[in-house]
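#help-structures
NK: newbie question, is this the right format to request a structure? protein is RNA polymerase, sigma-24 subunit, ECF subfamily
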Amino acid sequence: MTSVTVSRIGSDPDALEEFYREHVGSIQGFIARRVDDSHLVADLTAEVFLAAIDSAHKYRPGKGTPAGWLYGIARNVVADERRRLVRAMTANQRISGRALVEPDDLSALDDRIDAEAQSRRLYEAMDRLSEAERAVLELVALDGLSVRDAAAALRIRPTTARVRLHRARKTMRDHLDPRVPAIVAA
């Protein structure tokens, strides 16, 4: 395979297929000598060729053969996997033998979930608002701005801000307490 073909594997499916067929066996062997899980060998082989596709434009024939370049990529992929495994084993060792959540902690979490139920209902109601209505409501109700200051912050007229705030509050009220009858104008 020529270097011209290597540079084309990122954009030419035929060049990629030729390159893959020529090198897949040797790359699988390289990885299989270092990894003892067949699924992982297959995954890492795929990663090698994906990395080759992504970096094909960087291949320089004067720096080595296509096979040597591909082996360099494979070496990096295997090294990355080993580092990932070491991090995972270290994390597992640090937590092994320890309960991640004690029964008292679970009870406290249940209490917290119950306490936050009203907040979840508020967020659900706020999701029903338009972006414009939500912006005014947040500035007034959460940030404590006056309607006039909220209007200035949003670069709208105060009258527009009041209308949006009124609509937002009505939507919130209807969602949070549907038992409250709506006031019908005569």
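mod (FA): yep, format's fine, and the tokens are attached above. The longest helix spans residues 66-95.
NK: thank you!
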